[in-house]
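Sample entry (431 residues):
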Amino acid sequence: MSKYNLISCFGILFFICFLALLSRQKRSISVRILFWGIGLQILFAFFLFCIPVGTKFFLFLNDFAMGVIDSSFQGSQFLFGRLAIAPGKEGSIGFILAFQALPSIIFFAALMELLYYIGVMEKIIALFARIFIKVMGISGAEALCASAQIFLGIESNLTVRPYLSKMTQSELLVVLTTGMATIASSVLGLYVIILSDSFPKVAAHLISASILLAPAAILASKLIIPETYKPLTLGTTVKIESQRAGNVIESIINGSMAGLKMVVGIGTLLIAFIGLISLIDVGLLFTGKLFSTVLGIRVDVTLHTILQYVFYPFTVAMGVPLVDAQTIARIIGERIIETEVKSYQDLALLIKEGKIVYERSIVIATYALCGFAHIPSLAIFVGGTASLVPERTKDISILGVWALIASNIACFITGAVAGIFYTSGGSHFLK
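Predicted structure, serialized as tokens:
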């Protein structure tokens, strides 16, 4: 074990202490949730990184996921021709996000809806929910929603719609935090397409990150707002509430249309937020020049620079080597204002240009960025949840800011867990 592995260990303690300082009811923090929130991640990561069977299984999943993603290209290539051919393949004219990566969301959304229709996803979600109820002692409703968030997006809230109005604030924070800390399976392919050329085994890492993030998000939210009431569904398993498609074709159509809305939404957010951030940077640079002219003090500050310094301590705590810490801190800070899509794009570019020294930094960043923990998604999750229970809009609006903090720390905890088990000469799964 290297010094960086030890730093990752202490990093988890740092993140727990950080959350505890923010806690509304420090004396009500559940030791059981604290233990199993970290324990489930450690057990899963140990199976993944240290046990040969686990490593082989996830290598298989990586190859399987890449095969599925290759299938997703067929439809987009038929529609967009050479524009949709990924870099490195014959006929490609380079990477174009809109034509190569975003269309995969439509394919994966249709696939998930199909799997949901035939009952596969329902069984997997129910399994994770039972695990969370059994070991962490949380309510059935929040466990079900947290489990659904591993595979679905904002639509996961529909699975517990009848219970939302009667949820405690602690439960509602779990719903919001797990939504923002995890990723939907429909966008998994998007991230893989962005990173696979520079990080071949990224699919397996992203699958494991998505699973690890659920208990981390539950832990983070329960530390900030511990449960002080008795939830309606405490210790009981609840059934998934959803409107199932009438047949296979309808499920594919519904999934495709939902995927199309997501593509438009992601594209719109990227255009708007990247443009607005650029405008803010222009203003900051202009102010810096004004200081230079009037006071003779050179000040070159951008929003990215500010966020880089804000997230630098968290980056180091995850176990990122100091030589890469500023670079990784910059793209982690970038994620909170410009979405994880832009951050993954920049990570891929940095890898190609050889600007990240340690592979360890790449692995940790991949886990830490895997989530919707950013301001653009805050409006989506707060607005989407409030639309289901208008009477709880005030509570949900206030909890949204706490969910943004909790989801980011959950991502950092997951990055630290990956950092504990990463060794430069370790499993081929890490290469």
